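The pair is quoted verbatim underneath.

:::
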Amino acid sequence: MRSILYLYRNRGGRDRFREQTFSGIKRYAGMCSLKAVMWLDARPELVAGMLARHHPVVGCVVDCADDNAAMRQDIFGDVPVVYLHAPPTLYGRGISRVEVDHKAVVRTVFRELSLGNPSAYAVVGVAENYSWSQTRIEFFRSLVKEYGYDCMVFRNGGRSVRRASLLARWVASLPQRTAVFAVNDFAASEIVAAAVEAGRKIPRDITLCGIDNAEDICETSEPTITSVQRDLEGEGFIASKMLGSCISGSVSVPPLMPIWRSSTFGSKKSTYRIVAALNMIRGEACNGLEARDVIARSAVSKSLFNMRFREARGHSVHDEIEYVRLEKVFTLLSSTDVAISAIANMCGYRSQRALNKAFNLRTGMSMREWRKLYQKKL
C-alpha cells in the first residue's frame, strides 16, 4: 500500500497539536486509499531507511515547528516533500509549503481585542530568531495603526529570568484598558505572570488574547486565556492534497475561531452569561442554533441580554451565529472537497439560498468563485 509520511522532530513524544495535524493527513489518506504514517524524532540520517521501509511513498509532510532545519529536500531523493511552517531562509523560496495565514490570525485577534473598546494596544513577541513572531508583531502594529492607534511592543528581553523581570516592568507601564496581543499562548502565560508581579489585573486593567488554543496553558491559567485556534487539521489535509496532486508553491491557511475565556471578559455574573452564550454558539451554530435559542437559555430578559451581548461583542447574537457559520463554510471550501450543495446543511443554514446570500454579502462572490480562487493559490 502506498504511504504518506508525516515527519516531526520532537524528542518529547506525541503532542496534541501534532495529532491534530496528523488527523488531517489521515483524512486525505483515507479518501485516496493511502496509508498515513507519523514519524516522531525524524532525523536526516534515518530518512533513506524510513522511505525504504514504507515504499512506495507518495510523499512526505515535514513539520518544521520544532528543529527540522537539516531536513532539506535533497535527502528525500525523488520523493515529493511539502513543508509545514518552514522559514524560506532555511529551505529556499522554491519549496512547496503550507503556512499559517498570519494576517488572518492577527485580524481575528484584533477583532476580539477591539470589541472591548480599549484605550491602547500592545503586543508581546518571543525570541527574535523566530520569524513568525516578528511577522505577527508587524502585522498587528500595521493593523492597529490603520485604526489610528500606536502599538507598544515587547519583542524579547533575552534569557528567561531577565525577560520575566523586564516584562513585569513593561506590563506595569501599560495604560489602563490596554489590549495586549501575545504572539502565542506561552507568551500569553508570561504576561499573566508579569501582571501578577506588576500588580495589574486581567481583564480589569488589561485584556489579553493569544494564539494556538493550547488548553494545558489557557485553561490552567488564572485568569484563563482567550486564544485563537489554528486550523491544524486543515494544514495537514492541504499539505497531503498538495502531495497527492503534485501541486507546488505556498498555501496559507486561515485560523478557525477564537476560544473565549476570562482574559477578555472578566468575572462579572453577566460576563459569565455572555461567555456561556459564546461557547454555546461556537458549539451549536452549525446545528441550526438560532438567536432566540441562545436568549431563551440565558435566564434573563431578551432586552437585557441583547444589550449586554452587544456591549461585549459590538454586534447582535444573530451576527455572532452568522460569523461562526461562515467560518465553518470557509474551512469546508478551502480544506475539504465537500460538494458546495452539501455545505448549507452542514453549517446550519435553512436553505442553500440563505447561505448564498450570506456568503455573497461577506465576500462579494459566490462559493464556487471563492473556492476556485483559493485553489488557484494551490
The radius of gyration is 22 Å. The longest strand covers residues 57-63. DSSP finds 17 helices and twelve strands in the chain. Residues 268-377 form a domain with the Arc Repressor Mutant, subunit A fold (CATH 1.10.10.60).
